[in-house]
Specification:
9 strands, globular, four-stranded mixed β-sheet
Length: 407
């Protein structure tokens, strides 16, 4: 049978429609579209089983719709990225222990202020219910750090930690070990507050709490790379093409310790941007001078302007403990992604014949009210035994950033 052009066209059209019908029938299996942490759908895309969204349900497979991390109070988000770490000032001490290198850091959070006397007393008050009197005594900050054979600082020895006028001054006399106990307590305390607020079953394990988005990421001491990156806050010099106009010696613009602007930073042009020792015997300038650094000893943790990440006193006021153990060659040993030295691997202490470099020696950074301007540069680093304490070392906490919101 022969087909003319008209009949052939009708036949081809019918064939196309039939094919489309067959394909359509093959695609009737339901699809679930793109799923995200905030929008997981109502049932499993691989089994078809209905999800349970009741947070206290432990008998059915639970899926949380709460995908946003709970960072905790007082924390600022620090966007990670590529950066150049290391000392960008002349190495006048000839330590050569923090040479420049390019690394990348993941997002994290950091306390906007140093931990205060008030914060630490809250910790002691709660621990009093949980530990013996002897154990509590080991957590007390050392008030003896203010005493000196050739100085009269009795006022601070008796009053600095407990008098209300010093409530929001940075805690002093706390060792690295004590700071870590505080961070662990803070994690458990804040997590329990969140659990109670959400009315989550108190018998749930930490794994179950994590699945419900309730378990806090641990508060901890920041590692050295995080601290240095957050202190420099180079985000304030960033262009869209990933170029930066200049580096920073300190956590602010300019090559000096005074405010070079009239409007960018709070306070007036010419004001000091950190609380530090200006020179031998000069801790605060001449009385009546409106351009001095404001305090002879530590000052309120909110004094001075924050850096571009919104962090206060990342230079001066108090040195701060970081997590890392000290080794002079960390800059060449550590990975270039989230660098950290948590033990002496690759630089074992037995390789130092006569040395204080043990795995109990920890890094501290930032400069303090008692230090000259050189130590205000984030790239400088010093070290002390983890069980030692002074009147010029405090701390703040950090926390990892868990995933991207809602993805």
């Amino acid at each position: 049978m022969s087909l003319n052009n008209k009949s052939w066209g009708m036949w081809a059209t019918a064939l196309v429609l039939a094919s489309a019908s067959v394909l359509s029938s093959c695609n009737k299996t339901p699809g679930y579209g793109r799923r995200t942490a905030n929008d997981p759908g109502k049932k499993s895309a691989t089994t078809g089983q209905d999800f349970s969204f009741e947070e206290n349900d432990s008998t059915n497979f639970f899926v949380s719709k709460r995908a946003e991390q709970i960072p905790g109070p007082n924390l600022k988000f620090i966007q990670g990225g590529r950066t150049v770490l290391g000392s960008q000032e002349e190495d006048v001490m000839a330590f050569r222990d923090n040479l420049e290198r390019t690394v990348s850091l993941a997002n994290f959070y950091m306390d906007e202020t140093e931990i205060t006397n008030n914060d630490y007393r809250e910790f002691l008050f709660d621990m009093k219910k949980k530990v013996s009197a002897d154990s509590l005594l080991k957590l007390e900050p050392s008030e003896d750090v203010w005493s000196g054979a050739m100085s009269f600082n009795d006022l601070y020895q008796s009053y600095y930690f407990r008098f209300p006028g010093f409530n929001f001054y940075p805690v002093a006399g706390v060792s690295w070990t004590q700071a870590n106990v505080y961070a662990k307590w803070r994690t458990e305390f804040v997590q329990d507050l969140v659990r109670k607020e959400r009315e989550i079953d108190s018998t749930f394990t930490k794994t179950q709490l994590i699945e419900r988005g309730v378990a806090m990421a641990d508060f901890r001491l920041p590692n050295e790379a995080e601290w240095e990156y957050a202190a420099k806050a180079m985000i304030g010099t960033q262009y869209l093409d990933e170029n930066q106009e200049y580096g920073r010696i300190y956590p602010w613009d300019g090559r000096g310790v005074r405010n070079p602007y009239n409007v960018k930073r709070k306070g007036k042009q010419g004001d000091f941007l950190a609380n530090f020792k200006r020179g031998r015997g000069d801790y605060g300038g001449i009385s009546g001078n409106q351009r001095n650094d404001g305090e002879i000893l530590p000052t309120n943790v909110y004094d001075m302007a924050p850096n571009d990440f919104g962090l206060y006193h990342m230079a001066g006021n108090m040195n701060e403990w970081v997590y890392d153990i000290y080794r002079p060659m960390t800059f060449q040993d550590a990975d270039d992604l989230n660098p950290l030295r948590k033990d002496g691997v690759y630089d074992e202490e037995e390789n130092y014949e006569t040395s204080m470099f043990t795995d109990e020696i920890r890094v501290y950074k930032g400069g303090s009210w008692k230090d000259v301007a050189y130590w205000l540069a984030p790239g400088t680093r010093r070290f002390m035994h983890q069980d030692s304490a002074t009147n010029n070392i405090g701390f703040r906490c950090a926390m990892i950033s868990i995933g991207e919101k809602g993805k």
